[in-house]
Amino acid sequence: MARMTMIEAVRSAMDVSMGRDDNVVIFGEDVGYFGGVFRATQGLQAKYGKTRCFDAPINESGILGTAIGMAAYGLKPCVEIQFADYMYPAYDQITQEAARIRYRSNGDFTCPIVVRMPTGGGIFGGQTHSQSPEALFTHVCGLKVIVPSNPYDAKGLLIAAIEDPDPVMFLEPKRLYNGPFDGHHERPVTPWSKHDLGEVPEGHYTIPIGKAEIRRAGSAVTVVAYGTMVHVALAAAEETGIDAEVIDLRSLLPLDLDTIVQSVKKTGRCVVVHEATLTSGFGGEIASLVQEYCFYSLEAPIVRVTGWDTPYPHAQEWDYFPGPARVGRALKEVMEG
């Protein structure tokens, strides 16, 4: 089986999808000849031509508006927002148009678009290249929201997203593009070529949207995470020696609530980890659901480990970034509760 980085896995997913379906089109800023700022679309224009993989103006609202029109007429656009931080001009198109077409038309029209966007920090990108806006999408009825944590999942989930009849927000943790970053910024990056989940089939396969994966079985505490924080949580569990069960959500909307509930009822404790800000972050929704469905099983208060309620700071990147030390302290806290 081939070994791929997450960038290569994402590219392979688009390549496979374009080869199987002539209606799949790729566009965004610099995705054509240049191959994307992270090279995720490199070679696709040369292979499929300028009508199926092409550059768009620097106009996020225009990119999404065009994609929605294409989708209404039967195409399947997979568009790139160069960084998740740039999606705000397109938020109106996403939430008011794409998310509502099926409802507004009583099912006569769907909107099979995928919006890819690199998300999160850890690359010294500062406040305008490091944001994690996933909660802004999970609040919107009609959208699906995916955050993969490894190359194998990224490819399978992206193909599933492209084949889905409804709009999918596909957030790619940029700190994971080249390796499974565990929060230890002082260490060399481990490449995906040395990780089991770097093994990616070259052909077509899908992973069901809405199904979480248990990355580490345990009985003492449940850790719910997604994206880069899955690897941070795994590192924290190993370093503290606590028998933590680590759940990789993969899909935030729809959410695999059953896996979370079964785990927390078994462990009696829960820590939720994400990189986005604390207030109104998606972890608040997870904590609320755990409280609602697992109240009589809880043996300690639910703890959230998140970014700060500030713009993403360039100078204090690694204080803001929820690393294994912060997650480890939370694990110890709930075990003492």
TrEMBL record:
InterPro entries: THDP-binding, Transketo_C/PFOR_II, Transketolase-like_Pyr-bd, Transketolase_C. It comes from the Bacteria. Residues 4-179 form the Transketolase-like pyrimidine-binding domain. Its cofactor is thiamine diphosphate. Coiled coil: none annotated. One of its GO terms (molecular function) is branched-chain 2-oxo acid dehydrogenase activity. Keywords: Oxidoreductase. Its EC number is 1.2.4.4. GO terms for biological process: branched-chain amino acid catabolic process; response to nutrient. This is 3-methyl-2-oxobutanoate dehydrogenase (2-methylpropanoyl-transferring). It comes from Rhizobium lusitanum.
